[in-house]
Amino acid sequence: MIEVIGLTKRYGGKTAVDDLSFTVRPGHVTGFLGPNGAGKTTTLRVILGLDAPTAGAVTVDGVPFRTHRRGLHHVGALLDAQQVHGGRSAQAHLAALARSNGIGRRRVGEVLAEVGLADAGHRRIGGFSLGMKQRLGIAAALLGDPPVLMFDEPINGMDPEGVRWVRHLFRSLAAQGRTVFLSSHLMTEMEHTADHLVVIGQGRLIAAEPLRAFADRGTRQRVTVRTPQPAVLAAALTAAGASVDTAPDHLAVRGLSAEQIGALAFANAVELHELATHTTSLEEAFMEITAGHADHLAGSR
Amino acid sequence: MTTSTLTAAAPRTRAAAPPARFTDLVAAEWIKLWSLRSTPWTLGLATLFVIGTAALAAKADYDNFPFYDAEVQREHMFSLGDAFPQEGYLTLMLVAASLGALSMVSEYGSGLIRTTTAAVPARGALVLAKAVVTAAVWTATGALIAVGSFTVSQAILSGRDAAVSITDPASLRAVAASALLAPVCALIGLGLGVLIRHTAATLVTATFLLLILPSMFSADKRWSAELSHLMPGIAWGRLVTDWMPPPHPGYYPAAIPQSWLVLALWPVLLLLPALLLAHRRDV
C-alpha cells in the first residue's frame, strides 16, 4: 500500500506537486494519470525517496521508503527504461542490482526469462530497442519479488505483443495481492489495465476513484435536438427530469434517451429537425476533466 | 475486465528479505566495474604506458651514460628518477582520477543512479562501496605499475652497473608512494564525482586540481612553496626523490611525513563531505 499525504514538492520556484493526497491499495492495478508535466514522475520519485518532499509525507506499507537500507524487496520500480548503462549486458546490469540486495544469481535468469529476454541476456543494453529496455526495467523491478510495484510509462516503445504481455503481467501481479501503480498520460492504456485511477493535473489531485466511477462521470450520453419550437420542448424535457442546455440552434439534453425525447416531442406536438445521440469516450472524459490542467497546451501561450 | 482477480487476492507468503550486508554492495560495485569492457583496457593500457615511460627514461640514461662525468657515473643519482618519470605518473594520475570519477558520474549521466538508489536507499553505504572497490582495484594496479616501472628501469640501468636495489630504503619509499598515487587520485576523482555529479565538470576539475594547479606555485616564495606541498603530485614527487639539499632561504622542500599525510588526507577530506551531501540531495 502506498499512502501519499499532503505531498508538496517545489524545485526552486516551480511547484511540481501541490498538496497531493491519495492511497494506492494492494490487489489492484491503479493507474496514475495526468497530462505531461502534471507531476506524475515527481510523485513517483518522492515515493521512492529519490527526492525529499518539500512538505507532506509518503509511506510504503506504513514506513517511508528511505528508511530501508535495501529497497528491492519492498518496492520494485521502473522509472525510465533509458536510465541504464549501455555498455553493460542485461545480465550484468541485473546481477549487480541483485547482488546489492543479497539476491542470488539464479533470480537474474528467472526474471530475464519472465520478461522474454532470456536469449538477449548476454547482449549489451546499448543495442536494445526501447521496448526491450522496458522489459529489462520490468525485470529489475521483479528481482526482489516485492509487494509494491511502480512503473512510469511502461508501454512506451513496446510492440502490440509486448503491450498485451505487459497488461497481463500487471493484472496477474495485482491478482497475487501486490500493489501495482502504473503511470501513463494515455487514458486508453488505463482502460485495458487499471481498476482504480488517480488523476492529477498541474500537481493537484483531480480524481481518485474506481475506473468505472471515473468513466461514468464522462461517458454520460448527451442528445442534441434541433426544433423550431425550442422553448416548448425545453419546458417538457425539464418537466420530465432532463437537464437542458439551450444553444442558439439546438438543445443539448442529458438524462433522457433519444427515444424518450422523441416520444415527448411527439406527445407535445413539437416538430423535430434533428435528434442525435453523442457518447463521449473515456479518452474524451479524461480530456474534458483534465482540460485546463495541462502544463503545455498546444497552441496556447 | 473481470473481477476474478480481486477475489483471488490473498496475502502472499514471502521470503524474508536477506540482511543488508555491506560486502554485497562491494560485490555489486565489483560486478559493475568489470562488466564494462573499458575497465580492463584502461587498466592494461595505463600499466603498459607508465612502465614504457620508465623504460624509455632508463634507456636514455643507458645510452648517454658513456658521456657522463665520472662523478655522475659513480653516484648515478638519476636511477631512481628514471623508475618514476613525470610524464608516466602524471598520466596515471589523470587516468586514475577519471576512472574513479566515472564510477559515480556515469551513473548520474545515464540516470542509472535512480535505479541504483531505489535498490540501495542507504546512499552513504553505496558511495563507500564504490570507494572500497576503487581503492582496491587501483592499489593493485598502482602496485603492479610501481614495481613494474622500478624493475624494468633498473634492469636496463644494471647494464651500466647503475641500478639501485629495491631493498634500499629510498627505493622502498618511492615504490610505496608510487603504488599509492593511483588509488589516492582515483578516490579524489570519486569524491569530486559525488560532489559535482556532472561528467565534464568533474573531469575538468580533477585535471585542474591534480595537474594544472600545482604548476601555478613558485618554489622560491615560502608561502607559495608550502601551499604547493599540499598538492598530491608534489607530495608524491618528494617521496620518490632519494635526496634533497637542506632548506635554505629561497629553497623550501617538503618534509617526508607531511608528504605522506597529504596523500592520505586528500581522499578523506573529499569523501567526507561527499558522504554527507549524498544523503541530503535529491537524486
UniProtKB/TrEMBL annotation, chain A:
UniProt cross-references to SMART domains, sorted A to Z: AAA
Q: Boundaries of each ABC transporter domain copy?
A: 2-227
This chain belongs to the protein called: ABC transporter ATP-binding protein
Alphabetized UniProt keyword annotations? ATP-binding, Nucleotide-binding, Transport
Q: Which family does the record assign?
A: Belongs to the ABC transporter superfamily.
**Does the keyword section mention ATP-binding?**
yes
Which GO molecular function annotations are given, in alphabetical order?
ATP binding; ATP hydrolysis activity
Keyword Nucleotide-binding found: yes
Q: Name one Pfam family in it.
A: ABC_tran
From TrEMBL, chain B:
- Record bears the keyword Membrane: yes
Query: Per UniProt, which keywords does this protein have?
Result: Membrane, Transmembrane, Transmembrane helix
Q: Where are the transmembrane segments?
A: 41-58, 88-106, 127-150, 170-192, 199-217, 259-278
Q: Which domain of life is it from?
A: Bacteria
Q: Does the keyword Transmembrane apply?
A: yes
Protein name (database record)? ABC transporter permease
